[in-house]
Amino acid sequence: MKRTVVDNEIVIVGGGICGLATALALHRKRIKSLVLEKSEELRATGAAIIVQANGWHALDQLGVGSILRQTAIQIHGGKFISLSEDESKEAPFGINGEFRCLKRTDLIKAIANCLPHETIRTGCQVLSIELDPVTKYPQLLLSNGSILQAKVVIGCDGVNSMVSNMVSLHPTKLLRFSTCVARGFTKYQNDHQFPSEFVMISRGQVQLGRIPITDKLVYWFVTRLSTSQDSIISKDPVLIRRSLLESIEDFPVHAMDMIHNCKLSSLHLTDLKYRPPWDLLLNRFNKGTTVVAGDAMHATGPFMAQGGSTSIEDAIVLARCLAEKMDNTTDAIAERNDIEEAFDKYAKERRMRIFWLSLNTFLVGKRLDTKSCIVRSIVFAMVFVLFRDPDGHSRYNCGTL
Ligand SMILES: Cc1cc2nc3c(=O)[nH]c(=O)nc-3n(C[C@H](O)[C@H](O)[C@H](O)COP(=O)(O)OP(=O)(O)OC[C@H]3O[C@@H](n4cnc5c(N)ncnc54)[C@H](O)[C@@H]3O)c2cc1C
């Protein structure tokens, strides 16, 4: 077996939004890191991502906000349209601060382009992590058979995180919503003429969301109850489109046209896994000098459109805490203690933020999941009591880097 000792002290597992944002936040603090991504190239699954005020603050801290603002128009408001047999009802809603929808490729590229060339290693899967019995630092076993040693490992390996299972007190038990989501783009030859607003159209348990990205490009998503056929449908974009058109067959013509004319390569149908919110109260986020961030720490459903933004917040807070503690001490034990103290501070700062957000997302998801009017009313009342300010989640400020 090959054995390679890296001089990079910090290894980040996963090159998604969180891994790249963490590498950039550390780079801005003059701390070098290495990102290991299992895919052959950086992935941007899921067409687009909504970024709300808290996310824009975090992107500004990373220094990529102004580049990304040029790629997406600002959304100023929204409306719910509820369709029923006899009438349709419209209810406008306000938006707190800055709200835009970014192409995921734009976000990933903007962050990756700011990183030193040698930071990202693609086609590199981490199979397992163990503690070196002598140094007590983590050792990563890679799919090519080599072993990397690192002083710090940051697990940004997404919802099915291997690192999270390693640091948690108990192995992660992911749960599933009964709802699934399809997402895609529609590109219009001429301007689409939709106003710069977020429109949600619903009938029963089917919801369609529409947000313009530019004058010619629109991001949309459809949520509906999962079916036993979804594992087959999700493999073929033509089948996804057909199933969506069936789900929204009594929706307005412009909505049907939008799905009909979508870019097939942008289509994804995803089942929704989440970490129960109460686990976040009790679970450990680090073990020694290995820590988790992003979906690896707090996978939620997409119902608040905050998973990506909170991952960038994690990156800012983690880099800030590490930079405060990573000085040039030569004493190995003192150094390890410093890193662990940095992670304790990070966990303390993030725990309640991600708990409340996960709980809010969980309740909103359960409201969509259930057919029972009684359960829906109870969940509605809980959301009303616990989350009186519906925009509270986007007013959060993760501070400066
Ligand atoms: C339907 C849907 C809609 C959403 N909409 C929004 C939205 O509008 N706004 C928003 O803010 N959030 C949204 N989210 C949430 C958001 O997509 C996630 O929170 C975000 O992508 C998490 O980023 P991450 O880097 O933690 O994980 P990921 O994006 O999953 O990245 C993990 C990376 O790690 C790599 N990896 C995994 N295991 C290994 C390994 N062993 N070795 C090496 N590499 C590995 C993977 O290949 C992947 O690239 C949505 C999610 C869904 C499902």
TrEMBL record:
Any single GO molecular-function term of the entry would be: monooxygenase activity
Alphabetized InterPro entries for the sequence:
FAD-bd, FAD/NAD-bd_sf, MOase
Q: Which residues form the FAD-binding domain?
A: 9-330
Mind telling me which residue stretches traverse the membrane in this protein? none
Per the record's keyword annotation, is Lyase included, yes or no?
A: no
Top-level lineage group = Eukaryota
Q: Which UniProt keywords apply?
A: Monooxygenase, Oxidoreductase
- Key word Oxidoreductase present: yes
Q: Which Pfam families match?
A: FAD_binding_3 (PF01494)
Which family, according to UniProt? Belongs to the 3-hydroxybenzoate 6-hydroxylase family.
What is this protein's record name? Answer: FAD-binding domain-containing protein
Q: Which organism is it from?
A: Pisum sativum
